[in-house]
Write a structure and sequence with these properties.
about 210 residues, alpha/beta, Rossmann fold, six-stranded parallel sheet, 6 strands, about 15% strand, 7 helices
């Protein structure tokens, strides 16, 4: 039976790479853009989940706009929390309503375990995703977090336009790690940080 996979934040480079990888393996993949499914809007999520009913949910939608907390914009802070943390709860809870046996893959970030002075909202929300995932695993669900480190994406280029692109993790390599999670090759509750330096070892099963 072909498994159905829904990837939130479908316009992102990581989502696109995951979609290509999973489709090559025979999965039926739906990767809605924000206009097709807004992860902060319950009705929008419910419509998508009811129409597609995924076997696997990949919570990939994310948002970052660096700013010191000294100069923080409350609207911007709320957006970080609503998309990066609220979104994974809303999507997961609604998807579970239609499929109690849902496989949950949360796309985190190395920022969950690293300190960045102007990324406090992003780091904090991604750290919360890791803990939520561990709690869901303890609650009997299959849930893992796969966190990319520095990756060659549009978002990264906007943040660091002059960065050496050869030092970055490739989205298609990250997607292969996500595929292992979809295939439940990692223990539930696991948090795996994927870097350019360790991705091959992860794919070989050495980490």
């Amino acid at each position: 039976m072909i498994k159905k996979v829904l990837i939130t934040g479908g316009n992102g480079d990581i989502a696109k790479a995951i979609k290509v990888q999973l489709e090559s393996e025979g999965y039926d993949v739906y990767a809605p853009s924000r206009t097709e499914m807004d992860v902060t809007d319950w009705e929008s999520i419910d419509y998508a989940m009811k129409s597609f009913v995924p076997d696997v949910l990949i919570n990939n939608a994310g948002y970052i706009s660096p700013c010191s907390v000294r100069n923080a914009d409350l609207v911007n802070t709320k957006k970080h929390i609503d998309i990066n943390l609220g979104g994974i709860f809303y999507c997961t809870e609604i998807a579970l309503k239609y499929n109690p046996g849902l496989i949950i893959i949360n796309i985190g970030s190395a920022a969950a375990i690293e300190i960045h002075a102007n990324w406090s909202e992003y780091c904090a929300t991604k750290a919360a995703v890791v803990m939520a995932t561990k709690c869901w695993a303890e609650d009997g669900l299959y849930a893992v977090v796969i966190s990319p480190a520095r990756t060659r994406t549009k978002m990264r280029r906007n943040l660091y336009p002059h960065e050496d692109q050869d030092t970055l993790l490739e989205p298609h390599d990250f997607a292969k790690v996500v595929s292992k999670a979809v295939n439940q090759e990692f223990k539930t509750g696991t948090h795996i940080v994927v870097r350019k330096q360790n991705v091959n070892n992860i794919l070989k099963g050495e980490i």
